[in-house]
Design goal:
This protein has about 400 residues and is an alpha+beta fold. It contains 11 helices and 5 strands; from the N terminus they run ααααααααβαββααββ.
Length: about 400
């Protein structure tokens, strides 16, 4: 998956925090050397240990752990806090290091504990400054303002991370859906081409062989030997070719439809026996072209999948009827929580791909699709297709 667009932001924040730690620690050391701090060796040792511990934790996280966590995180935070407390006791400039520590607390400590740690460390910084240089307005207000700013930045950072994680999840889901869509389109294209070939073979070769067979049978009755024997052999050859042609047609049609659309729909309902809802299937024996059978079967599968995924129904009803000699009607209804079809359509293809795919199938066959639903009132998908021609498997 491609990196998040927010990755440079997080990298910049981490680099800035590292630079802040190193820069402020260097300032404490330089300041102690310049002013000749009374505990200069101790300041140098503690400052070196402080930055070393920080870099060890930062390197650990960079070396493969997405974020330092668990016992290591608590130990690392405790070590940094202890060294900082010792440093701020040795020199007042150590109080400056509390600002980057605020972000460590907010990032590593869960929930309100990070804010509590910020408050406690700010109070310690105020007390240490008061002990070294006396309590002043700047010495009190400075750590408080820094703590407030750090808390606001930390909360914004957490919100940004949540937003980034959600974007990454949605992007991964989108890529997965796109791959599924490509595979589905490829499969649908292959099935449509197989169905087209089956129709063409049925309407040309199979019908021609059937006619040849009937003509040869009629000629055979009026012929005399040895011509009758040749006609009989030709008729038998045509019959064998017709059987082979029908076998090819059956192989080109989806195996699920071997026994017809009605049987396929009943099997589809039986396959949902593990689902937390009941599926009732009612069908009539209807002769349909193979492309219409495939379309209705796929629409029924999609409608059942949508009901199972979104509707939380207790019952789904699937009905296939022929209201007249010119059309066939497929209805899939449920008693689930329903939805607003207008809102789904307005949301676009990202949330209504299944419905859009159904409409495209219906439009290709010159039919009509109607969706009746309302929040809390279940949903009903009704498809009406014209009955053109006869089934591919018949002659």
């Amino acid at each position: 998956m491609p990196p998040s667009t927010l990755t440079p932001v997080f990298v910049g924040l981490r680099v800035g925090l590292h630079a802040l730690f190193v820069g402020l620690t260097a300032f404490v050391v330089v300041r102690a050397v310049v002013v000749g701090a009374p505990h200069l060796p101790a300041v140098l040792i503690v400052a070196g240990g402080f930055i070393a511990v920080y870099l060890v934790g930062a390197g650990w996280a960079r070396g493969g752990v997405h974020a330092v966590s668990g016992a290591f995180a608590l130990g690392w935070v405790a070590a940094l806090s202890g060294l900082w407390g010792f440093l701020v006791w040795l020199t007042p400039e150590g109080a400056f290091l509390v600002f980057p520590l605020f972000f460590v607390y907010l990032h590593l400590l869960p929930g309100v504990w990070g804010v509590v740690a910020v408050g406690v460390s700010a109070a310690l910084a105020i007390v240490s400054l008061g002990m070294h240089i006396g309590f002043t307005v700047g010495g009190v207000i400075g750590p408080i303002v820094a703590a407030a700013v750090a808390v606001l930045i930390g909360l914004a950072y957490r919100a940004l991370r949540r937003e980034s994680a959600e974007r990454d999840r949605l992007l991964a889901e989108l890529l997965h859906t796109r791959a599924q869509l490509a595979e589905t389109e490829r499969e649908q294209g292959a099935l449509a081409e197989r169905a087209r070939l089956a129709r063409e073979i049925h309407d040309t070769v199979a019908q021609g062989l059937s006619s040849i067979q009937m003509l040869l049978r009629a000629a055979e009755r009026d012929a005399v030997e040895p011509s009758a024997a040749h006609l009989r052999l030709a008729r038998e050859t045509a019959a064998d070719s017709l059987r082979e042609t029908r076998q090819i047609i059956r192989q080109l049609t989806p195996s699920r439809l071997d026994d017809g659309l009605g049987a396929a729909l009943h099997r589809l309902g039986a396959e949902q026996s593990h689902a937390p809802f009941r599926v009732d299937v009612h069908t009539e024996d209807i002769d349909l072209p193979m492309d219409a059978q495939i379309a209705l079967l796929r629409i029924a599968q999609g409608a059942l999948a949508n009901a199972a995924r979104h509707a939380e129904p207790s019952r789904v009803t699937l009905t296939l009827t022929a209201p007249d000699d010119d059309s066939v009607l497929l209805a899939v209804g449920d008693d689930g929580r329903g939805f607003d079809p207008g809102a789904v359509a307005a949301a676009g293809a990202s949330t209504s791909f299944g419905m859009r795919a159904m409409r495209e199938r219906v439009d290709q066959l010159g039919g009509a699709l109607e969706v009746v639903s309302a929040p809390g009132e279940g949903a009903r998908v009704v498809v009406r297709l014209p009955r053109h021609g006869v089934g591919v498997g018949e002659t």
